[in-house]
Amino acid sequence: MKKFLALFFVLWGSWAFAQAVGQFPIGPGAGGGGGGGAPSGSAGGDLSGTYPNPTVAKVAGVTPGTGVAAALGNNIGSAGAPVVFNGALGTPSSGTLSSATGLPISTGVSGLGTNQTTFLAANLTVNGALKLNGSGTPSQAACADLSNAGTYCAISSGVTTNSLSGDVAMNNTANYFDGPSVAQGSTGTWMATGTVVTKDTAASAIACKLWDGTTVFASSQQNMATTNVALTFSLSGVIVSPAGNIRISCRDLSATSGSIKFNESGNSKDSTVTAWRVQ
After folding, report:
1. What string of pLDDT tens digits covers the 279 residues of the chain?
2. Are the beta carbons of 182 and 273 closer than 8 angstroms?
3. Taking a C-beta distance cutoff of 8 angstroms, is the pair 153, 140 a contact?
4. How far apart are CA 270 and CA 262, in angstroms?
5. Angular region, 61: left φ>0, alpha ψ -120 to 50, beta rest
6. Which of 12, 19, 193, 194 has a C-alpha 20 to 30 A away from that of 1?
């Protein structure tokens, strides 16, 4: 009888333990918030919702702004993805660059004309740069680099003028003798105009020309039927890239007693030439 009771209690105890384990599972695979099974109940901390499927509501206690969570789900470089440090911006649909810095002129600006990036990147003191509301006069080389700015550069070059300070004798019928001249340089397009007064003690014919020593761009001839008659020649013209000083030269065709006068009128400006750059 004693052996039977002992076996009974052993079997009953095993059954009771098994029932307890089934009611309160423990160990791997067991439910509840212990070491196994899917947790249940309300989530807390950075999570929201309920177990077993809570969602991330915060990051280190901070609630993300609108759309941040969706953006984090996109691959870097794809539409809607956030830009990370040293990451590629991609092609945004819009943006405001009022606070952006470091934009390279040579590669960062689109829609400019040919050579405009070079022009914008040039320092104001070197060829290729145009001074706008600045001091100084652009060099002729700088003006030449800008095909559409020649007129503006020409304005900065000013006007050059000169008058004879003494009579010039025309004592060889084969030669032209230089009257007034200006040193304007060899770059650009120039408009020139001038007047000379000639006189001869003999009846003669006199020819005059406006030129740069190589190219004639205006000329005239007058005949003097009587002696000691003052002849006035007024010449003007345009020349591109002058080869030398722009001048008026005259030749006495039939006598060696003629001269280009500087003060026949008493004003010392009888023979004068003026030139200004127009491009």
Report:
1. 444 444 444 444 444 444 444 444 444 444 444 555 678 888 788 888 888 888 877 777 778 777 666 766 666 667 767 666 676 766 777 777 778 787 777 776 777 777 777 777 766 555 555 555 445 554 444 455 454 454 445 444 568 999 999 999 999 999 999 999 999 999 999 999 999 999 999 999 999 999 999 999 999 999 988 899 999 999 999 999 999 999 999 999 999 999 999 999 999 999 999 999 988
2. yes
3. yes
4. 5
5. left
6. 19
Helix or strand (DSSP H, E) at 156: helix 150-157
Residue 187 tokens, joined: 């770059």
> How far apart (Å, rounded) are the C-alpha atoms in residues 81 and 59?
18
Starting at the earlier edge strand, list the strands of the sheet with 177-182.
177-182, 246-252, 204-211, 216-224
Residue 229 sits at φ, ψ, to 5 deg, of -105, 130
CB-based burial label for 26 (10 Å; 0-12, 13-18, 19+)? middle
Pairing of β 159-163 and β 272-277: antiparallel
Q: Are 269 and 197 in contact (CB under 8 A)?
A: no
Rounded Cα gap, residues 216 and 234, in angstroms: 14
Task: Give residues with Cβ within 8 angstroms of 152, minimum separation 6.
Answer: 130, 143
Q: For residue 228, what are the contacts with CB-CB under 8 A and spacing of at least 6?
A: 199, 200, 201
Q: Which residues pair with 59 in a beta bridge?
A: 62
